[in-house]
Amino acid sequence: MTTPQRPRRPITDALRRTVVEDLPEIAWIGSEELRRKVVEAWAYALAESSFERITSLPAEGNPGIFLLKRGTQADHLRGVTRVATSIADEFLSAYPEADIDRDVVIAGGLVHDVGKPWEFDPVNRAKWTGDPSRTGLPSLRHPVYGIHVCVAVGLPEEVMHIVLAHSYEGDFLVRSLEAIIVHRADSLWWAVAGGAGLLDPKSDAILEGRKISPRRLKDQPGSR
Ligand SMILES: [Fe+2]
């Protein structure tokens, strides 16, 4: 039997600083407490993993699926957060009577994939692929492991819900308004990345299943 993981390395201010450096959109969150907990969530998740910092995580949707040709997971997190925030801002300015919690959208965008250090960890992958009959493959997907991180650092329920519901786990729930925004921003981001030819051609079959045809990149005739 395998015991549950505990933080493998201490959560230091140096580690927290890398989170702030890798996710500058944290500064967009109005609440000081929420900013601090978003930093803490990523520092906690990294400390329980083999990854040095967020920019060490590969830019993939799931392990082996939707690999970006360049960049890191930070590019995805930041892109989704900016898209989600622009959706919220569009409605807040066009319909000032709409009650959208902008801070929850930003925080949710930044931590929606906070479980990925666990799901992408090469040590975990080796264990899970070694004998899936023991542990499952993966034992927990990143939206579920992300909940463990959220509980550990005390993120509010509204943000925790986004972490669980951003992916198809959320299809079993009624998504909050802010979770709808982050969920759509996340899937839109991958669809546009695929359509723009930014993904490794290994993802072409999945894109085809979604009726997305990757376009050639500019100034690179023939290259994909
Ligand atoms: Fe994502």
Describe the structure.
There is one protein chain. The protein has one domain: Orthogonal Bundle (Hypothetical protein af1432). Helix content is 54%, strand content 6%. The model has no long low-confidence stretch (mean pLDDT 95). It has 224 residues and is mainly α. The radius of gyration is 18 Å and the shape is globular. Fe (ii) ion binds next to helix 3. The site of fe (ii) ion has 5 residues, from helix 3.
Distance between the termini: 45 Å
The strand line-up of the biggest sheet is 1-2
Rg over CA atoms, rounded to whole Å, is 18 Å
What is the level 1 CATH name? Mainly Alpha
Q: Output the CATH topology.
A: Hypothetical protein af1432
Structural shape? globular
Q: Could you say which structural class the secondary elements and strand pairing correspond to?
A: mainly alpha
Unique bound compounds = fe (ii) ion
Strand and helix order: HHEEHHHHHHHHH
Residue fraction in strands: 5-15%
| Annotation, overall tally of beta strands | 2
Count of helical regions: 11
Please describe the biggest sheet, giving its number of strands, its sense, and whether it closes into a barrel: 2 strands, antiparallel
State the share of residues found in helices, binned by percent.
40-55%
Key descriptive features of the protein:
mainly alpha, 224 residues, 6% strand, binds fe (ii) ion, two-stranded antiparallel ribbon, Hypothetical protein af1432, globular, 54% helix
Gist of the model:
The chain is mostly helical and 224 residues long.
List the helices and strands and how they pair.
Blueprint: H1 13-22, H2 32-47, E1 58-62, E2 65-72, H3 73-94, H4 102-111, H5 116-120, H6 122-130, H7 132-135, H8 142-153, H9 157-165, H10 177-195, H11 204-209
Antiparallel strand pairs: 1-2
Helix pairs in contact: 1-2, 2-4, 2-8, 3-4, 3-10, 4-9, 4-10, 8-9, 9-10
The structure holds fe (ii) ion.
